[in-house]
Amino acid sequence: MKEIMEWVKDILLAVVIAAVILAFFKPIIVQQQSMEPNFHAGDYLITSRQAYRLFGDPQRGDVIVFKSELLDENEKPKNLIKRIIALPGETIEIKGGEVYIDGQMLQEDYLPGEAISGEMDAVTVPEGQLFVMGDNREYSEDSRSPRVGTIEQSTIVGKVIVRLYPFNSIKMFKGVDYES
User: Fold this and answer.
1) For residues 142 and 35, what is the distance between their CA atoms, to the nearest angstrom?
2) Is 95 assigned a catalytic role?
3) Active-site pick, 68, 82, 140, 159
4) Residue 13: pLDDT band with limits 50, 70, 90
5) Is the pLDDT of residue 178 over 50?
6) Which among 2, 9, 26, 34 is annotated as catalytic?
7) Among 54, 81, 88, 159, which has the highest number of CB atoms less than 10 A from its own CB?
8) pLDDT, position 177
9) Is 82 noted as a catalytic residue in this protein?
C-alpha cells in the first residue's frame, strides 16, 4: 500500500508540474508554408502564453500565434502563425511591393529577398488590434486579406519563443533578432 501511495504522489506531482508549465507555455506545430523560410511545416514551437501579460506589449517583428475566425477541417477556429508588422495607431501601406509604416519603408531583414508583389492602400490599425503578415508573403493569408484583417490583441495565443524541432535548427526568438 505504501508503494501505491508513492506512485499516486509522484503522478499527482507530475500532473501539477505539467499544469503549471502549460499555464505559461503552449506547444505549437506549424501546419502551413506562410512563414517560410523562417518556419516550416512540421516545426515544433513553444509559445509564451504570458509574454504580453507579464513582459510588455506586442512589438513589431514578434512572431505570434493567434486564434483566427478562419475555420479548420473540424469547423473550429484556426490558429495562425504570423509576424506583427504594424501596431495600434500606425498606418501601413504597400507601395511598389515595399511595406511602409507611417510613411517610412520597413526594413524586413527576415524576409527571403525581393519585395512582395502587389499594392495595398493605407490602413490605420485600430486601438487594441495588430496588423500581421506571414514571411512567405505570396502564400500567406494574413491582415491583407478581408477574411483575416487586423487582429484583436485578445486573440493572441502566444508569442513564439523557441523552435525545438527539427533539432538541427533549434533557435530562441526575440522579435526579429534571432539568437542561436
Assistant:
1) 11
2) no
3) 82
4) confident
5) no
6) 34
7) 81
8) 44
9) yes
